[in-house]
Every structure is written in structure tokens, then in C-alpha cells.
Write a structure and sequence with these properties.
Blueprint: E1 2-7, E2 12-17, E3 20-23, E4 26-27, H1 35-53, E5 60-67, H2 73-83, E6 91-95, E7 107-114
Parallel strand pairs: 5-6
Antiparallel strand pairs: 1-2, 2-3, 3-7, 4-7, 5-7
Length: about 120
Amino acid sequence: MTKRFNSRPHLHGGVVHNGVLYASGHAATDLDLDMKGQTAEICEKLDALLAQVGSDKTKLLHARVYLSDMSAKAQMNEAWMEWLDTAHMPSRAAIGGCDLGDPKRLVEIVVTAAVD
């Protein structure tokens, strides 16, 4: 069975199929924040989505992190490491030099997670 969450005109915020959440790209709302701040805000949004579908951050399987500027990766990593317990790290790719649609948007994160 497939369940869709957080419907928008052009996508869903997440789709669960066969016990796996496939989340769309999540970005910060407050674009005046720096890389660390935007990442922390996104992590809060991901916590909410994970709870909504019956999962949590300990069940993350994979993350793709899109960065507008790879030189700010350390700031993203600070927020990432504050959010996650090292015992439950997902596999992850960080992709730099991305055009995220607004020059003030610094990071976008896509995750997959197990759902019970």
C-alpha cells in the first residue's frame, strides 16, 4: 500500500511504500539563517514528517544533502551531528554547487527512512 503525506500542488512531502518513507526535498523557511541554522530548521521539519508517518530519525536509511556552497559543509555538519546520534547515522551524500532556486537557500535535504 502507498500512502502520501503533505500534499502540495506539484508534489507530496513524503510517500510511504512497503515500509519505506521517501521524502521530498526539504528546505528552510527562514532564508535569513546561515547554513547551520537552515540545516537545523530542516531537521526539525524532518522530525515532524517522520513522526507523522510513524517513524523517527533513528530509522533514517539514507540522506542526500544539496548545498549551494560546499565551503559551508562544516556548518551543515555541525547541525547534522547535533541532530543525530552517531549510533543511528544514515548513509549520506553531500552534493555541492547546487542552484536551489533562491540565492539565499543554502541547503536542501532528501531522506528515506524505515517506517514500522
